[in-house]
Amino acid sequence: MTNRLEIRAISKRYGKVTALDGVTFDVRGGELFGFVGSNGAGKTTTMRIALGVLTPDSGEVWFNDLPITHETRTRIGYMPEERGLYPKMKVLDHLVFLAELHGMGANEAHRSAENWIVRLGLAERRKDEIQKLSLGNQQRVQLAAALVHDPAVLVLDEPFSGLDPIAVDVMSEVLRHKASQGVPVVFSSHQLDLVERLCDRVGIIRNGRMVATGTVDELTAHAGTKLVVGATRGWATGLAGVRVLSENGTRTVVELDDGVDDQSVLAAALSAGPVTEFSRQRRSLTELFRDAVTTGAKA
């Protein structure tokens, strides 16, 4: 059976404040799911409900087509945004301890801990206390802590925060590998270019509500077409259905209304002089996110 985590119509209130309002999405086995939103949008609350740290006012969390239980929650690997490590414990001892807490025998726990220490580039720090590590290496240990018990699901809150580019590459490769093994992986991040590059699907949350879910291509499929045109300056002035987004020398970026033929745009540019560039430009996740959180457009 392919592992699958489902968040089903989760709502949570704190007094008069609605933290979550019917949040629904699923994370399928073998995929990386990027969970993005502004600070305070509800990402961490959703993750804590999935883990059983918080109880929803309504809605359910399901795993493999059944309501999640304490036993199945022990199969989740969780990496919190805030540091969740014992600062005076040594790296190896800490990971072995956590693996044993999840039910591994001593030998298996040591093998798993040593494996992740090597894979995450921590071999030279295995005997160091956590508090003596750089913030980036502490982040690597936190990922190892989420992985050491061979989880069936990974839930990661801002796992790339504070990492240098090399560490980002290492962590990205680990997450891809776990997904390739059929593990559902969901992580939040404010690094939207990274989310766009890594994730199979994306969910955008705004003020406790999901406003978009799907692949980046799906979410931008009905967005206005953008064109990059290298032509005589001012060629697009007054052209119906064409909005100039930016103009830098002879390079102009325009967005077309629905139904506008890009060939008519090319003809207009050519009528003004030579055209040295004419290409489509896909909307980025950053642009999609900006629109979603400011307009609240439904998915």
Automatic annotation (TrEMBL):
Subcellular location per the Swiss-Prot or TrEMBL entry: Cell membrane
UniProt-listed Pfam families: ABC_tran, DrrA1-3_C
Topological category with respect to the lipid bilayer: Peripheral membrane protein
Transmembrane annotation, as ranges: none
GO cellular component: plasma membrane
Domain ABC transporter stretches: 5-232
Main location: membrane
The UniProt record lists the keyword Transmembrane: no
Gene Ontology molecular-function annotations: ATP binding; ATP hydrolysis activity
Source domain of life: Bacteria
Name of the protein this chain belongs to: ABC-2 type transport system ATP-binding protein
Lineage of producing organism: Bacteria, Bacillati, Actinomycetota, Actinomycetes, Pseudonocardiales
